[in-house]
Amino acid sequence: MKRSPVVKFYQQYFAATQSVSAGWLARLTAAQRLRVLEDLMQWEITSPVTGKH
């Protein structure tokens, strides 16, 4: 059975960040922090999509 991409993402994310201290973002470069923010923001849906594209 194939796992959902969302489930796989969360499992890999928490496995990778489990042993990192609370300030793990401080160790990233500014470009890396921006990329993390961009990646996280794509999941935030504030209103339903309407109309055709």
Write the layout of secondary structure elements.
Elements: H1 5-17, H2 30-41
Count up the helices.
2
Report the span from N to C terminus. Answer: 33 Å
Percent of sequence in beta strands: under 5%
Number of strands: 0
Major sheet: none
| Inertia-based shape | flat
User: For the residues shown, what is the average pLDDT?
Assistant: 68
Q: What percent of the residues sit in helical stretches (DSSP H or I)?
A: 40-55%
Low-confidence stretches: none
Rg over alpha carbons: 15 Å
Q: Based on helices, strands and strand pairing, what is the structural class? A: mainly alpha
Q: What is the string of SSEs from the N terminus onward?
A: HH
- Our count of domains comes out at 1
Description:
The chain has 53 residues and is mainly alpha-helical. The protein has one domain (5-46). It has 2 helices and no strands. It has helices spanning 5-17, 30-41. It is flat, with a radius of gyration of 15 Å.
Observed structural traits:
mainly alpha; 2 helices
Summarize the structure.
This protein has 53 residues and is mostly helical.
